[in-house]
Amino acid sequence: MEEEAEEYMIMLEEELKDNIVIPSRKEQIKCYNPTFMIKKADGKWRKIPDAKTLNKEIADFHFKMHDSNEVKQTNILGDWSTSLDLSSIFPYLIVQTESQPYLAFVFQNNNFTYRAMPFGTKHSPIYLTTAMEPIMLQMQMKIEIKIVNYPDYIIPVHQNKEYLKNIIQKIIEALIYFWFTINTEKCETEPKQTVIILGYEWILTNAMVNTKPKKRLLLQHDLYNVRRWIKTGTEITVKQTDKLIMKLYFQRLQFQEASLFLNTMDHQKVQAARLKGLNTMIIMNKTAIPYINQQVTKLRANTPAQLIQIPPQMTITTDTAPSDQGSILERELEMIAMAHGTWNKRQARLI
Known about the structure:
Elements: H1 2-17, E1 21-23, E2 35-39, E3 45-49, H2 52-57, H3 68-74, E4 80-87, E5 104-107, E6 110-114, H4 124-143, E7 146-150, E8 153-158, H5 161-177, E9 181-182, E10 188-192, E11 194-197, E12 200-203, E13 208-211, H6 213-232, E14 236-237, H7 238-250, H8 258-276, E15 281-282, H9 288-301, E16 305-306, E17 315-320, E18 324-331, E19 334-342, H10 345-350
């Protein structure tokens, strides 16, 4: 706890120095948001505000974030890619003065508010994506490169390996000009044809995708829990169901068969939420167990999925009639073989 408190103090002092956080008087505050520290995998700490109370009061609105389908359309067969890890640009997104009292927190009996956009409110990723979009668009137009961007990293993509290798420094300089900080330890500046996006391993040489081991194991664990709850008739909240549906939804990129079961789960969830609200308890139907078993088997196998539909090299056309049948084998509009025959008496009776 002492280490956590020390790190908190260091971060708070840096935020005060950079004018990200400002002192505030108690009578000005409209909403307190508890803050907590999380230790990351690399041993460093991150300070995060708990904005649950505030998020309940913030109105929802529809906004489409970048997802795997957009990456699928961007990364064409044979592309080369790099990845640049970004430190947050949130300190440069200033919150309106009238909204700052809702972003308050307390530390050692002192009150503070966020002057810059903190990560934790439901709209934070939306504001960041909106701010990044015109910057990325200008970069793509000027250096003729495709860019897939997310709140904490971007992926430049190009078909020419040498061009991408030579242009990457210009991309870094442009990002720094627009106040981004590049985390060089996590960057991949050498062009590769394998890239990790949203827990998937994208193999661009043959346009294949599979799930990374860690993500696969976590999802298997979730499926085991749900299967146990269904078998024992354990009630789960609508929120838990919704969380699982979202996880399985992302798996549709690799496992297309997920759609029918997801629709069934979603229908049951929506009906329960409509009648009793999001915090109501439901018991999942036992008909879901065979599907869960199938998904676990598929996750274990982790067979890569083909992202680009490859046109067939040959096609066969068949035709039948009560008296006879025929077929034609073609390769790129060139007829290879033709077959024709008549039905015997037993076959004719079945027609």
